[in-house]
Design a protein that fits this description.
The structure holds two protein chains of two kinds.
Chain A (H helix, E strand, L loop, with lengths): L1 H19 L6 E5 L8 H8 L5 E2 L2 E2 L1 E5 L4 H11 L3 H13 L7 E3 L2 H10 L3 E6 L8 E5 L1
Chain B lengths: L6 E4 L9 E15 L4 E2 L14 E9 L4 E11 L7 E15 L2 E9 L22 H4 L6 E11 L5 E19 L3 E20 L2 E14 L5 E4 L2 E5 L2 E4 L11 E3 L2 E15 L2 E13 L7 E10 L4 E12 L2 H11 L9 H14 L3 E15 L2 E16 L2 E2 L10 E13 L1
Antiparallel strand pairs in B: 1-2, 2-4, 2-23, 3-22, 4-5, 5-6, 6-7, 7-8, 8-9, 9-10, 10-11, 11-16, 12-15, 13-14, 16-17, 17-18, 18-19, 19-20, 20-21, 21-23
Helix pairs in contact in B: 2-3
């Protein structure tokens, strides 16, 4: 009986948290229709400039501007980095002549438009922002 | 990156020929002062200087296609051709072709990976040292090269392995300093071929490199390679350092050859502790009068919030015939009663001074402070011990060579990169 009460209390607490806390949608990796499914290591290598093509398709990754929540969650969940470490990585890479960081776009709408119109485009979005027609290539 | 000065100019997009131009900038404003009236590391004395570390740069990266790009970088820094002026130079101007994930080819003016921080040496924001240890980073007056660079990358379980190979040349000014003549900047042509093997792991970077360089004077003159001893009898004699002097003749070489081998490691021992070390052996051939050296440093860095304090110890020492040549030239003094003794003594002294001989070690205590992710403030106390002599010290005119000395240097730098 005590066990049932405990479980009911836990369930109530979870329901309460769902009401009080904002909903955190997962971040998914999206791409143009010509890009096939990706895995986490490949996404990591795309966003660190180590991969420029996947399965024969030249990829063009884009980032949201620094500080946007979806970007921060993408860096943490997929790259195991934060803004500072990611910026530091690209600062060194740029100044050793190994390229520049992915282009940055200002809004979700810009990202969607870019991905849908650019062959090889790779990006990330909050799952709640992903249009039904979008090609989701990785979901953690 | 949104707050950066970098801007992206999208000329056209949506095709394989999208053209992106990304501008970026970097710089260091650095002040250094020593406790000695004579100059150390070209510029530092007890009057203080901004010239040792201060540099401003701008870089443009142009992405032509997914495989082709071009990079240009200009620098404003103290001239490498004299000690007085500042100069605007093009440090990078190359075209890159990346035909696949694993291959990178670059053609043009670029920098070779002689040190762990060769390519980003001018971008102080990318490392924590107020100044990279000169006992290691003075092996060559410049690591610029105009030529071909081919890089191949593998990704085994161990980490990312990169083999960089390169070949090309550079017109440089090699600085020497003589007590009686001041600074001398010899225009030389250096041709380089080499390779660097780098292993990058999550917590460590390891590198080994080999560089074969051939150096000749611009304009076709030969380099003196051996000064013969001319005996005058009764225990007197001198070293003939010029063909204007009596003697069998100075030996010359059309070019000199250096083989430089470097080892480098940057390892995270614990989550906030790093040890960084580099070693170099510079083997010089075809002359007795060159910089035949062994050097390196080891440094321990500890990250505490925005601070990264560090301690480093560095050593640079000449080896082989150049040490004995300089010692013999220094010791050879003709008495005044020998006709022409003054001129011969002065010329021997001049010849000794311009041979690049080093015997010094340094202890540095410093810290960097990350003001923002893109800027750092750095402070350092450096204590250098000069042994027999060091070509990094400009010994005062008319006096003896600075030896058995201790030089204290305080540095304060602000570095940024956008």
């Amino acid at each position: 009986m005590k066990r049932v009460k405990f479980l009911m209390c836990c369930a109530g607490l979870v329901n309460l948290m769902c009401l009080v806390l904002p909903t955190w949608a997962g971040v998914v990796v999206v791409a143009n229709a010509n890009v096939h499914k990706l895995d986490v290591p490949t996404v990591q290598r795309i966003y660190t400039g180590k991969v420029i093509e996947v399965a024969g398709v030249a990829v063009s990754p884009v980032n949201l501007h620094a500080g946007q929540p979806a970007r921060q969650r993408f860096l943490a969940d997929y790259l195991q980095q934060n803004e500072d470490t990611y910026l530091a990585y690209w600062t060194v890479r740029r100044y050793v002549g190994k390229g520049v960081p992915p282009r940055e776009l200002a809004s979700v709408a810009d990202v969607i438009a870019y991905v849908q119109s650019t062959p090889g485009a790779v990006a990330y979005l909050d799952e709640a922002d992903v249009p039904a027609s979008m090609n989701v290539v990785l979901r953690k | 990156m949104a707050a950066a000065l970098s801007t992206g100019l999208l000329i056209s997009s949506g095709s394989a020929w999208a053209l992106d131009v990304v501008m970026s900038g970097f710089g260091t404003v650095g002040y250094a002062i020593s406790d000695k009236p004579y100059r150390y590391q070209r510029f530092i004395d007890d009057s203080g200087t901004f010239k040792r570390d201060t540099v401003l740069g701008a870089q443009a990266d142009v992405k032509l296609t997914s495989q082709w790009s071009a990079t240009g970088q200009v620098l404003v820094a103290p001239s490498l051709g004299n000690d007085d002026d500042w100069s605007l130079t093009t440090s990078w101007a190359f075209v890159s072709w990346r035909p696949s994930n694993d291959w990178l080819l670059r053609l043009g003016k670029q920098r070779v990976p002689l040190y762990l921080n060769s390519e980003n040496r001018d971008v102080g924001q990318t490392y924590d040292f107020a100044q990279l240890p000169m006992e290691m980073y003075s092996i060559s007056p410049s690591t610029d090269l105009t030529g071909l660079y081919v890089s191949r990358t593998w990704a085994p379980e161990l980490g990312e392995v990169t083999l960089d190979t390169f070949a090309g040349g550079a017109d440089l000014k090699a600085r020497a300093y003589a007590r009686d003549g001041g600074a001398l900047f010899l225009p030389v042509r250096t041709d380089v071929i080499g390779a660097a093997l780098t292993l990058r792991q999550d917590k460590a970077t390891w590198r080994i490199s080999y560089h074969h360089t051939t150096t000749r004077l611009q304009g076709g003159s030969d380099l003196p390679s051996h000064y013969p001893y001319v005996s005058l009898g009764n225990g007197l004699g001198y070293y003939q350092v010029s063909d204007q002097q009596p003697g069998p003749g100075v030996a010359y070489a059309s070019h000199i050859v250096n083989d430089v081998i470097t080892l480098g490691a940057d390892v995270e021992l614990l989550p906030t502790w790093r040890v960084v070390s580099e070693l170099a052996r510079n083997i010089q051939m075809r002359t007795e009068n060159g910089a035949n050296t062994a050097g390196g440093y080891v440094a321990l860095l500890h990250k505490v919030g925005s601070f990264t304090p560090y301690v480093s110890y560095a050593r640079l020492r000449s080896m082989g015939s150049s040490v004995s040549v300089v010692r013999q030239l220094d010791a050879s003094v003709l008495p005044d009663y020998v006709p022409g003794a003054d001129l011969i003594n002065m010329s021997q002294r001049y010849a000794a001074d311009i041979v690049q001989v080093y015997d010094q070690d340094s202890l540095a205590l410093g810290t960097s402070f990350a003001l923002t992710p893109q800027s750092k403030l750095k402070a350092e106390w450096l204590r250098t011990r000069i042994g027999n002599r060091s070509a990094m010290v400009d010994s005062p005119a008319g006096g003896d060579v600075i030896r058995r000395a201790r030089i204290n240097v305080l540095s304060l730098n602000y570095s940024f990169a956008y």
